[in-house]
């Protein structure tokens, strides 16, 4: 019996930052990080604040340029791409076709209203904007965003409303790999349940998800696998074993309280 090739394989990833205000001092955020993601699974990055979880996502999405290592992505044609060394044009192509990313904060164009902001992500080269707007409206309603806010500007919204708009922008266009950086941190329980339902639907449809959650209940409910980071290194990668998971529940609850 053959094992399916991983959709994404992170091999020896490192990321260093140069602090010019400290006379060029180099600080290692990630060192020799390795793990793999199988297609159609949800993997959660765990660890205390500051251990490099967000840096992993940003290296994969190439917001950060890795300092070393490889990020091997397997596309729909079974062709491998090293995201760590891909040129800028290749990165933009991957983002448009294969990679989705929800950052912690929404940074929208202040002149673009909500519905248009979300719909732009789904407009095809043929310009079927009417269909895109309908899809955007349906997704916003699913996320409990009232229609009266469609023409309002997200810069004026609450943190929870902005987070739902941010999610809608990522989810309106299906991707093979979705990266989520604390996508529910500003949401109440009811809206968290909506997001969980959406993510479970994406998993059933074959989307691979790598996420950061600070709510232990969400981790326990959603995670097929976990990757535990300590001081920028992987201390465990695999199924959420009770002994490993329980060791990090206290830090998760602490982080959850800080976010709220």
Explain this structure to me?
The structure is a single chain. A hairpin with a 5-residue loop joins strand 1 and strand 2. The protein starts with 7 loop residues before the first strand and ends with a helix. The longest helix is centred in the last third of the chain and has 18 residues. It has 260 residues and is an alpha/beta fold. The strands form 2 sheets. Strands 6-7-8-3-9-10 form a 6-stranded mixed beta sheet, sandwiched between helices. The protein has a 4-stranded antiparallel beta sheet with strand order 2-1-4-5, covered by helices on one side. The chain contains 8 helices and 10 strands. The mean pLDDT is 90. It has a domain of 176 residues: Rossmann fold (3-Layer(aba) Sandwich), CATH 3.40.50.300.
Structural class: alpha/beta
> Can you tell me the CATH architecture of the domain at 8-98 and 175-259?
3-Layer(aba) Sandwich
Which stretches are poorly predicted, pLDDT < 50 over at least 5 residues? none
Question: Could you describe the largest sheet, including whether it forms a barrel?
Answer: 6 strands, mixed
Order of helices and strands: EEEHEEHEHHHEHEHEEH
Helix content range: 25-40%
Specify the number of helices.
8
Shape: globular
CA-CA gap between termini: 47 Å
* CATH homologous superfamily placement of the domain at 8-98 and 175-259: P-loop containing nucleotide triphosphate hydrolases
What is the arithmetic mean of pLDDT?
90
Strand content: 25-35%
CATH topology value of the domain at 8-98 and 175-259: Rossmann fold
CATH class descriptor of the domain at 8-98 and 175-259:
Alpha Beta
Q: Largest beta sheet: what is the strand line-up?
A: 6-7-8-3-9-10
Number of strands: 10
Radius of gyration from CA coordinates: 18 Å
């Amino acid at each position: 019996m053959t094992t399916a090739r991983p959709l994404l394989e992170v091999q020896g990833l490192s990321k260093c930052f140069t602090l010019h205000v400290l006379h060029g001092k180099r600080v290692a955020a990630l060192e020799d990080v390795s793990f793999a993601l199988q297609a159609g699974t949800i993997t959660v990055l765990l660890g205390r604040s500051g251990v490099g979880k967000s840096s992993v996502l940003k290296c994969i999405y190439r917001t950060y340029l890795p300092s070393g290592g490889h990020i091997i992505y397997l596309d729909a044609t079974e062709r491998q791409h090293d995201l760590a060394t891909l040129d800028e044009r290749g990165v933009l192509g991957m983002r448009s076709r294969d990679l989705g990313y929800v950052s912690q904060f929404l940074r929208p164009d202040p002149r673009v209203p909500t519905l248009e902001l979300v719909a732009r992500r789904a407009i095809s080269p043929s310009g079927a904007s009417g269909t895109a707007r309908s899809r955007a409206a349906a997704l916003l309603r699913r996320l409990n965003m009232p229609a009266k806010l469609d023409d309002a500007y997200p810069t004026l919204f609450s943190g929870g409303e902005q987070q739902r708009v941010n999610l809608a922008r990522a989810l309106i266009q299906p991707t093979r790999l979705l990266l989520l950086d604390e996508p529910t941190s500003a949401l109440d329980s009811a809206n968290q349940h909506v997001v969980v339902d959406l993510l479970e639907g994406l998993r059933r449809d074959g989307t691979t998800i790598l996420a950061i959650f600070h709510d232990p209940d969400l981790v326990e409910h959603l995670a097929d696998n976990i990757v535990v980071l300590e001081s920028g290194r992987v201390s465990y990668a695999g199924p959420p074993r009770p002994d490993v998971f329980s060791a990090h529940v206290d830090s998760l609850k602490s982080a959850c309280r800080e976010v709220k």
